[in-house]
Amino acid sequence: TTESPPPLPKATTLLLDMDGVLAEVSKSYRASIIATCHAFGATSVTHDVISEWKARGGCNNDWVLSYDLIQSDPNGKDGVTLEEVTETFEQFYQGVTDVKTN
Fold first, then answer.
1. N or C end of the chain: which has fewer CB within 10 A?
2. pTM for the whole thing?
């Protein structure tokens, strides 16, 4: 006769990983950056453009990076606020709005 393993204890802790140590999330963040920029007319923003900006340093805040990319794009919407960019980014990242990138 084989014995069943003992039951697992009930979980008392929830572990969230937001820094990419346990789960790689950079692609979903970058897809949200691109979708956000494109939503505001900054259609020149690609994965390569994001990589170039990230390599320069000082681009750890993806909301600010999205805002800066929109401002630097010749077709980026004028007068957009960081609050609007942040809200749009979160809609894409949280799955409220579908992300479509090339």
1. N
2. 0.72
